[in-house]
Design goal:
The protein has about 160 residues and is α+β, with helices and mostly antiparallel strands. The chain contains 3 helices and 8 strands. A hairpin with a 5-residue loop joins strand 6 and strand 7. The longest helix has 20 residues, at about 5-25. It is elongated and about 55 Å long.
């Protein structure tokens, strides 16, 4: 989720979007409210078992349009984008980590460890602030989430 004003908007939109997603049989993966250049974007990422298709995105976009206009949680004009989180999706929320224990992930650290910043391995465990990455050589790294530039599902084959 975004920080600052974007985080407040994302939280407000999440409250509106969650019941709509449940009605449509999808789940919200993430919501981001970002400024790119002079334009604002509200990006809602959806997921479900078996994957999200264009019909899911279109149905959700149509269903959330009127509630967003009515409740008006965003002051400025923006472009609404609804999509799947895609391959190599960012793991940002506790439920993302819980859902992906045992799966391959890749990370980039803010500061290198022994000259290396990028690692991949199996997500072994996670709590609110830390996670354990099992490296291909069998060693484990216990990592603070705040020490990473990104944490992504490594499902691009």
């Amino acid at each position: 989720m975004s920080k600052g004003k974007g985080g407040n908007v994302s939280s407000a939109v999440w409250q509106i979007a969650a019941p709509i997603a449940a009605q449509l049989g999808v789940e919200i993966w993430d919501i981001r409210f970002l400024k790119e250049g002079s334009d604002w974007f509200l990006r809602i990422f959806l997921d479900k078992d078996g994957g999200i298709g264009i019909d899911d995105c279109e149905a959700f976009s149509r269903a959330i349009d009127a509630p967003l206009d009515e409740l008006d949680p965003i002051e400025q004009s923006y472009c609404l984008e609804v999509s799947s989180p895609g391959l190599e999706r960012d793991l940002t929320r506790p439920e993302h980590f819980d859902k992906n224990i045992g799966n391959k992930i890749k990370i980039k650290l803010i500061r290198p460890v022994d000259g290396v910043r990028e690692f991949s391995g199996i997500l072994e465990s996670a709590d609110k602030s830390r996670f354990t990455l099992r490296l291909p050589d069998g060693n484990a790294m216990d990592i603070d989430k705040k020490e990473t530039s990104y944490i992504k599902l490594d499902d691009f084959e």
